[in-house]
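Researcher: Please translate sequence to structure tokens.
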Amino acid sequence: MLCDVAQIQFRKATLQDVAELLQIDSVVAHDLARAQQIEQWVKQQYCEVLLLNAKISAYAVLHHHFFDQAFIEMLMVKQSLRGQGLGLKFIEHFKVIYHDVKLFTSSNASNLAMQSLLSSAGFQASGQIENLDLDDPELIFYHPVLGA
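Model: Translation complete:
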């Protein structure tokens, strides 16, 4: 795995990072509202970036709007670096920061790669929400409090 030998750092995203985040995000090309959403996440300080050898290679958004629980709303890895373990590194980072709370996140039922990542990271199924996307339920996952 690439990330086993690379230098990885995490930090809060800044407005100067937005252009790079737009390039990483695979949804922006067909959903222009995503660009505004990314900028809002950054302004609200919900967005963190993963630096791989000093270059932004992934971003994630974590907030507490999901029933006052820590919720990873977005995890996006640069297309060319997917499958290298960066998503797992990001989740492990959040697990260290939020070791004393449950972590929640979600994935479309069709996103098997994300579900596999969440399973590898120790997340458990916690339900689903119908009718957000046509014929593609949103699956909810949680990671229990570490050490509980």
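Researcher: Any highlights?
Model: The longest strand covers residues 55-66.
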